[in-house]
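Input sequence (505 aa), recorded before submission:
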Amino acid sequence: MSLINENPTELFELYEKDPDGYESNARMGLYLSAIRKTFIHGEPYLLKALSFGKKDEYTRSILERLGGICTVKGYPEMAADIYRIAIRTLPGSVHFIYHLGDELFRIGQEEDAYDLYRRGNAAIYQQARQMSDQAQEPVTHLLEPHKLICRFFGEMGHRMDLYLKSRELGLIDGEKAVLLAPNDVLVNKDFAEYWQEHIDVCFSEEEIAEASARYRDNWVYTDYYELPDGRTMNRMLAHRAVQEIWEKQKRPPLLKVKEEHKEKGYAFLKNCGMPDDAWFVSMHVREAGFFDEDVPWNNNVFRNAKVESYLPAIEEITRRGGWVVRIGDPSMEPLPKMDRVIDHACGDVREKWMDVFFIGESRFFLGMASGPSALPPNFGVPSLGTNWFPLGWWPFCSGDMFVPKLLKKKDTGELMSTTESLKAPLFGATEPLFLERYGVEVVDNTSEELREAVVEMMDRLDGVEPSREEDDMQAEYRQVADPYHVGLLSRISTGMLRRYPELLK
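Predicted structure, token format:
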């Protein structure tokens, strides 16, 4: 319950009349915490409402928002306490079991987290099987959270890839999957249609209504997966383990760019001046404009970078005969006019299928830990992940390479080693307030580091074999960069290891 559609004037009048009341505080807290810019400002009102000890239609949302606010403020222990209260108050809500697992994992109680994830999965997968058996149907999964999957380009690419590979490998008990894709949240219908070969995607209101009624108790959460070693993990770690099994079995990528999109896509590139025999790199550098990230506690702040720092890397690609297609949205800083560079993000021609084509047909993808970086594995395209953050959620395919952001201690100016950076509770941390409380500064990649990484990536694609010294350095890095032992197929830029020996300390 968001209450984001509340009439603010009426809400503030209600609060002024009864500043100490339950409903006035509950509604005020839920309203403020439903808006990105005022999210954490809902906390005192939610706490006041919680103090009444009531259990009603507001309770679940109050507890969910309070836990989220604690996480954003950098207090995972407090968030865990909130979720324990939620589990006691609403014992039938599996979501709070997962939430508690996330916070326990964050503070270093990973075995307890795995047990909670396993407990949550056991409940929902067993229910889906029982419902399917009763209906005398194949075991059917209604994929959730469907609105998140449909609203964000990368969420769909990442979650569909992991779910389907896990199912094909026999790690999931399921035969049929259904995704509800309502038009009011579906960000890219063309991309959603790509998955129809593997799952049932419901687009129309009639299809959605029918599937919602038919499979309402068959929902499964696409965030947690049991691995062959028995551990149940968050998708960001599980994907690495699943991809390693997938590649060992020499299985192909799940998707191929449609011929109609190839035909239209290459015609567009030719119209932009790219010759028929040329190759190109698609590029996405995340900026703050798309999600309106102008509050200091926004979790995405450190996931951004300045596109001008990529200019030498772009020039290196074009110098070696390639083209660069920058994708994104019109809120981005326009690129300067450059030879063999197409700034599609700020261009006049924009259709949903185009980003899918640009990524799926790239020689490699040059990006960050942003939404589009989830698509290259769908199509078997290698990635160079730059300014990679958060630390620990590494790219997971063997052809991938990455250049992480660095962490620095504010009091001494000393760079932190990989081991230090990946210790709980820093592993996967994105919250500015949390990092500030721990005295940690996030350092972006320099232009030269980016250029070096692009050179190394292109050398690998051209067949240049790494030296024995480079392989030894990579092996040493994998030891420290994989604290949860799920495997790490991708490579860090060797240039980063040479430039910063502290990483292996």
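Checked by second reader. The longest helix spans residues 110-134.
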